[in-house]
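Database export, one record per block. Field names are fixed; values are copied verbatim from the stored entry.
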Amino acid sequence: MQSQDVAPRPAPASGSAADPVVDVEQAEAALVEHYPRLVRIAYLVLPPGLGRGRRVLTAHALTQRALPRGRTAAPVIPAQPAGREGDPGYAFVRLQVVRTALEAGLPLRRRAWPKRSQLPPLLPHVWGLRLFPRSGGADELALDQRLSAMSGPARAACVLRGLEKLPDGDVRELLTAAGVAGVAAALDEAAGAEDAYALLDSPEFDPCSLQARPTDLMRRRQHMKAALAAAAAVAVCGALLGLPGDGWGPDGAAAPPYAQNPAAQAALNPALLLKVPAAAWESSARTDFSVWPARGDLTGDRALLRRALAVWARPGESVQVSATPGTPSGGPSGPPQLLYAGTVDNARVVLLYDGLRIVRYAEPRDGTKGAALDFARVDGADRAGAGAVVLGRADGNIRYLTAPWVTKAAERDLLKPSSGAMDLTLTGGTTAPMAGPAQSGACTSWNVLQLTDASATRLLTDLGELVPARLTTGRPGSVKDASGAGALRAWAPYACSLGAMRSSGVRSVNAWAYASQPLPDTGGAADWVCTRAETWQGGGERVLAQFHSPGSTYGAVAAKAENVPACGAKDPQVLAGVLWKSGTGSWYLLAAGSRGTSSISATGGVKGSARGNLLAVKAEQGGRAELKGTLEDGRAVSGLR
């Protein structure tokens, strides 16, 4: 049996002319996907003399500033990725993190402007709290002391060897690109810590899992008093200057900000919350969140409901507030609808709906400290989009509140289409806890929620937000729910790519097999699939063109784009290509367009053309090309990048 493997993409260290081009989108994707690892690298390389609190904030600041400002020196037709080290975006961002972390440890010099990385970070910043990683054991403390005694380049060499598992040749190239002069000396100095490399993954050195303690309370109180006195003086002066005789200054006829507003007062009154009868959905022409009844064991707890409404209108500094992209986080304009109020694991949860947003308020069972407020936009939801809302997450598990028309809930692994679904108990519309999708590390499973009602069976996936995203298959404009055996098999190789769509307000994700291509030098055919994520806000759509060769477990992302009509109902056309190595060792540029593509041409480092929607041209490893296609109606289409 002949083997097919994927072309590894080089990880550039120096940004030379032979290196792939890395643009902002590619670097951002790598930074978001590997953010915890990059921050850990920065934290370990930074000088311990900064103190644990400042090291944490500086590590986050340096990582967030690692994005390029434009295109910096991946191929236009990227080879299929081979993990983190095959991603040019990750290699570039890692180099920037190491370089700036080393610069932060340099001493300030007279008559020379300091580098930005040598100054305390302006952002991120947390007022009134000191943040630092959790303390480890004696071994971690000993390693921290050993690292503190090393030079910055030696610490960087330890991290690249022990955490990134890079061979010495790659470490030498990366440190040279980062501006280190004595690379050989740094490697020799780092050799003494090889026995403790496994500890670099310890929570002791994880600046994304933090503990919080207050700062100097007495000094903070003194500063607050001085600031309040200064603010009061400014306010008095402003009022005297802004009242010319008989007016309210720039506000004209507006009432003063402390005037009571009847609608705002009503929105904060728990007695006026809208509660829909349990059977309203059965006779209503609408099947969305507006016909959900109020459920839960605390719907009569006026104090809890009052707190939820008050926090929604005026969240305090201690409240953790999150909102999906494009979702306003202001207070309600009138009395909202109560969907749920009850106890979920170790929290009291309230779900509210105002016609535009779902709002989730949660507080601990033993108090209100640590309350959270989450917003999700759901305007235009239909029966399929209003199937479930996340009630709570704990220990990697998720509980959902389902729509009143849902008759059955189950959990299934999208990566194993033939394994069947495991039933979830429904109690008052609340599901038993189910395992969530993989959050980090190797993607060996992707658990989704399967809901059944009188009209259909649907699959929903959690993407880190209040409302799970609907999974569909088919040509744009005529999609259907991914519930049948064929649809499940079609989604299985691409389930792990859903991780790239987290926290972006996704409403639905469609997988469309737009082409099948015979492979040269071997039997079998590869599938080309386009996955497109639609959002609630109507912008920020994400498109991935994926290539799946026979025998491969996962599809490989060949191209991606954002805010484009390609692969959507308005313009279902898509064109993408990939470098592929056959079983005989020959390299090819493979490209495929959707139905209606009359010809494809490649220019640049790889040249060739073909009639129809498929192209296969011999190429060299690392070759670059640009694709152009012509549709049957004469329109031109460019390849996704």
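Remark 1: The longest strand covers residues 506-518.
Remark 2: Residues 1-18, 73-82, 240-252 have pLDDT under 50 and may be disordered.
End of record.
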